[in-house]
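=== Discrete structure encoding ===
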Amino acid sequence: MIYLFDGNEVYLIKKEIEKIFAEHDIDKTAVVRMDGNARNFDIDTLLEELETLPFLVEKKAIILRDPPFLKPRRKKGEKDEERIDKNENDKTIKKIERYFDDPLSLVDFIMYSETKEYSSTDPLLKKYKDKIVHKTCRSDGDLRVKVASILKDYGLVLTQKDRELLVSYAAGSLTKLIANVEVLSLYPDPIDQDVIKKICDRSIEDAIFDLSNAIFAKDISKAIMVTRDFKALGSSVFYLIAFLASQLRFYNEIQYYDKKGFGTQEMMKRTASKEFRIRLTLDTLHRYQDTDFLDILDRLGTLEQTLKSNSGLDDYERFELFIVDLMEEYHASDQRHL
């Protein structure tokens, strides 16, 4: 059989491969792994393995990561030539087609990608759609519903608030949620929010979300705390500014779609974003309706230029002063409207 698994959920991809091993009784010693991104990847070596019968076992598996002869699905704004792999050529395609025409029944050929999704219009996938099992592995549904059963599988009992924090750190990714639960399951002492914050992985996007929310809520201590977390990681303040600016532009875009009456699914399609991110953004927009995102974005641009002019202060100290000045001005403006 020939398989292709793609999508953003590494955990689900691994589960699919494990399922094949179990159903076809494939011993892990009879597995050959190859990487299509490797410099020494060679199509002839791959075909030789695919066309060699298993030795002393009933069945074997060839696992190929990121097959270079398949075209990833085109992303928004991406040109065709930017996604065609350099290794792809007519000679390679013909060799692969010859194997796909008559694959060995005793060899399972498993292709996968943890970072790409492949288009069903790809010539190979289209031509051999009856021979290739293609499955895209994405999170389905709200992780808040799944977290209880996942914690139970690992023998963990957390409070509702702790579960919500864990789900927020996952940012819609089942793979990240399970990775963090696995880390927590090894922790010897009782688990609370402080433990989760210290040992669980979170994305930069999550931290930027916390920072922007703290700014909108005029929570100076929280905003400074998140900023210092970035500094402790050794991140450039320009990196922080760029991410925050991107978040503000996203808020402004979703605000526009919300006013136009677009639903969540339409917003996901237009922005190529997960439902989790759209839902959190809408919640933020509804809570901070009077926030002028473009004004803050403009001020960030001014700050960036000031930092580049080589001021006497440390970059992060200047950024913290920016946050304080911004919140104090907004607070004064609120008072004037009372």
Notes: Residues 170 and 177 are 5 Å apart (CA to CA).
